[in-house]
Amino acid sequence: xxxxxVGSGYVGLVTGVCLAHxxxxxxxxxxxxxxxxxxxxxxxPIYEPGLEDLLVKYVKSGGITFSHSxxxxxKKAEVIFIAVGTPSKKxxxxxxxxxxxxxxxxxxxxxxxxxxxxxxxVPAQTGDRIARTIRLNLPKKNKKxxxxxxxxxxxxxxxxxxEGSAVHxxxxxxxxxxxxxxxxxxxxxxxxxKPLNATMVVTNLATAEMIKHASNSFLATKISFINSVxxxxxxxxxxxxxxxxxxxxxxxxxRSFLNxxxxxxxxxxxxxxxxxxxxxxxxxxxxxxxxxxxxVNESQKAWFTRHIEDKLWIIKDxxxxxxxxAFKSNTDDMRSAASLTVIEALRGEGxxxxxxxxxxxxxxxxMIKGIRFCSDAYAAVKGADCLLLLTEWDEFKKADFVxxxxxxxxxxxxxxxxxxxxxxxxxxxxxxxxxxxxxxx
Length: 441
Ligand code: UGA
What we know:
By secondary structure, the chain is an alpha/beta fold. The protein has 18 helices and 14 strands.
């Protein structure tokens, strides 16, 4: 099938490359000409395991092409996925300017049936607004001067891809949700995803939009819940890791997304939780649970910093090593990373920060000023009074901790992800502090 993807960020690019991989002819579109140039040469501007290899393969075979013109891309396709950014406004609401622009551009050049599919996370009822924008901007007459205008459909097909494992998630979905208002749209979307042989959930547009809101917000709720439990564990001498294990065997609960830590970050959860609270407010409902989820997430980062202050005693002029800056492992993404808040607070207290991340250094340099970026994990711990583990990269688990200990001034570790082997570190003489691990597991 001929498919256009408008917006070549994380979501658009992964979707485009993977759709080419399952046999479709894809044209990806972005208004950033530099990006398009790089993509044509088979280079991706982000770190996402497995993506570049597939891109190179399908650029070579011609399965994927690029354009910086929405009109050009949409003319070549029957199905158009909208994967442009939906940043947060100051009030937490999603800014849908780019979505409106895509709808208008597609409408202006529409000369045959088109199916527009929302891929970006958007507030419920956005589908209706896209349809209205298209109706208002459709050519009034076709070339022969007749009043006939092309038909179109709008559908919602939310993505559930995690950065760092997006290609795997696309190819092995737990389910594919499609929100449609016509049989034709349903048929087209079923056809597109047929090669994946996945469970399909077919709903109307608004329901599919709500599934995305509810899924991300529920996962964020699980994280804030376990972080709250971790706070109590810390005080009563329990170990949150074991609590999560004990809860997780219950199939109704499940173990995933019960990892206590320094709070969730990234480009999705913080923004999506805000947008859902906003949507609820607009519809006249006070979404108290979700407001608390957000508060707990913020307070978790603040607590972590206070905890360091408490154990380290004096922060001013202490050298603090940071391992991991990205909002999670296997990505170079720094958006709403917990490291930003933690580093900012400690710098404010006069600490000297020495940081290292395997992939996110370039992005981090643009966002964090006044710290030392180090070439590797060992350079970061040299002369340090403590080490903060902020992102769970495998590389850190495999580090040589004898060497690490000997390079540090004080062998103190604050593990913001409960990721390191606390027992082994203890045996090496480290003072180890995890999250919710009975004070000092
Ligand atoms: C999330 C969802 O998992 C995807 O299904 C969804 O498609 C995506 O948002 C989106 O809406 O685009 P992502 O933000 O890439 O994916 O990353 P996650 O793996 O969900 O992690 C989000 C944050 O929660 C990270 O900061 C992570 O460290 C944190 N987290 C996750 C925890 O603190 N504890 C956990 O147990 C799990």
